[in-house]
Amino acid sequence: MNSLRQDPRKPITRASAKNNSKILALEYHDIRERIVEELALRSCFERDLIMPSGRIVNHDIDVAASLLNAEVGLLASLAILHNMHESVECVGGNDYTARLLAPALSQVAFLRGRDLDAFFVRSEPKQYGQHKWLDGQLPEQSRVCIVQDIVVDGVQLIETIRRLQEELRVEIVQAIAVVDRLDGSRDRLRDLGIDFTAICTMDEVLRKYQHNRRSGR
Asked: Which of 38, 141, 160, 45 is nearest to 97 (CA)?
């Protein structure tokens, strides 16, 4: 089956440095549209996949591949900060995702006059030094926003939330994902009383991708 991923030999148009200020001035609706467009161009590909719910799909998405691009990472940070409650003091999440998102969020927030400490939860404790399972700043009883690149059924996100609640007694104010694959995560998080927001859904990205294919992009 042929990949739907963009031909790696075809260069992707990048924003020039002079346009950075324009990105920072974008309205939220425009930021969302840009994120969906970039994910459709950079990250969608064809693959037969059985979702945790048993639903069968023939497409997948590598959100992290897009977030590693400077422009997309900045757009995602702006979108997440737009949705983040003012009471949040710390932002982070599970290992790989939080390493991608949390430092950028903390830095963009700082540029906008907001103090927001970043952290990430290791999948396994360090095997040397202090054997820490958590890196960054996360005092007990902090008000926390958990961030993730993509949420499928919410199970991994819930495991991270429970660990932080049990071991550090932090208050999980909300959880924000860049993409929701719509496989039950919203209901699971709602049942736990977690305020959950996704910047966009997989359905939105896929519709954009299919539109691009029809128009020859």
From this structure: 160
Q: Which pair of structure tokens corresponds to residue 81?
A: 């900060």
Give the DSSP letter string of 128-164: STT--SEEE---TT-EEEEEEEEESSSHHHHHHHHHH
Q: How much is the pTM?
A: 0.86
* SS3 of residue 214 by DSSP: helix
Query: According to the CATH classification, is domain 18-214 in 3.30.1330.30?
Result: no
pLDDT digits 0-9 by tens, 129-163:
555 678 888 888 899 999 999 999 988 899 889 98
What token pair was written down for 82? 């737009």
Q: How many CB atoms lie within 10 A of CB 188?
A: 17
Report which of 71, 85, 49 is spatially closest to residue 176, judged by C-alpha positions. Answer: 85
What pLDDT, on a 0 to 100 scale, did the predictor assign at position 29?
96
**Residue 185 phi/psi, 5° resolution?**
-65, -45
- Give the residue from 92, 69, 191 showing the smallest Cα distance to 144: 92
Contact (Cβ atoms closer than 8 angstroms) between residue 48 and residue 56 = yes
Q: Which residues contact 45 (CB under 8 A, 6 or more apart)?
A: 3, 4, 5, 59, 60, 61, 62
* Contact present, 182 and 152 (Cβ < 8 Å): no
